[in-house]
Amino acid sequence: MTRQAGLEPLIWIYTRTTRLMFKQFSVVGLRTIANYMVWRIIQNRARNLNQTFQDIIGEYNKVMYGQNSQEARWKSCMGYTILQLGQAVGSLYVRQAFDEAAKGTALDMIHGIRDAFAQILLEEEWMDESTRKKAKEKSDYMQEWIGYADNILDQENLNDLYSDVEVNSTEYFRNVLGNLHRWGTGDLGLLRLPYNKNGWSDPPTTVNAAYSFLLNNIQFPAGIFQPPFYQKDQPRSMNYGGIGVVIGHEITHGFDDQGSRYDKDGNLRNWWDTSILENFHNKSQCIVDQYGNFQVPDVGLTVNGLNTLGENIADNGGLKQSFRAYRKWVAEVGHEEPLLPGVNFTHNQLFFLNFAQVWCDKEKPEALISLINTDPHSPAQFRVIGTLQNSKDFAETFQCRPGTFMNPAKKCSVW
Question: Which domains can be identified in the chain, with CATH numbers?
């Protein structure tokens, strides 16, 4: 937080990025900065223009990301509609496609995984009791939002929410500019107002999950409750390996390199003892070094262990918590689930297999280079490899010999 005489205090979050940006500004000059700003406007709005511009974007994406085909018109239109009218589209989606039973299942899993995290807190020898108590308080204060906000099923509420939307059936680009103006004025209107603690980060159709530093809550939109993350009729082992790991991942974000800077009420405040914070940084450095040594095939680059630290901490913590919660669920039920016919895997193995399946993908070299340079997540294959290398449960389940690639002697763990 910074304060200047006569000015209101400001919270400066992205300090490193901002410093680098201003350093670059001092080198390139005002003309280049102005040209860059105009370019960014063109780059973002060209997608809303005619086919000539779509073709130019296609060539750009081919060079930058290795994309050889343009996105289908229906898909881009759907994406834009969700972006602008996310709650209205989400209302239609949850009415027609969301299984309400998933809410109850997810809530049971969340409670079990939160209990697992609380148990892990008790086991961490690098923490003192004072810091452990504060971490437990933050974990206990954490709220969970599942599926969607109830008010999106209220038609009158939706009408009020979009009452200022104007649509012209013959002037698409004018509609785009109008939407930009609406978004901009809406955001500026929130300046100096109390933070809205009831707002979701994403619309219900989103296939993702989130942790909010400011709200200290975990959010799971309706869209993520589908394979491979979740399926009502598949074994619990696979659901814990899918959505369960995601739940643990989001919980852990409250205690990663960024989330650990916020207290239980979402305030940017240091609640760590100095020596314990040093222990945290030392354990985090192990993960930085581990992932920083991963060589990415085909592009001659390594994973940026520092930029991906928060996500890697969350991946490792989420897997550990979810597996514990699954084994506790089995113990409470009193027996293992029936084996899947025709599949020669135990349910412990299915847990890890579904975790890996979630991140199974194939990226082109151009896309990988962009991802490594800009994405806070590690490339998908290393989200799997790095996390499983650190998992004693994985090594025991698949009987990996000590000292092998997937069961190294040195394992990294924060939570």
Answer: 100-149+202-398 (3.40.390.10), 152-197 (no CATH)
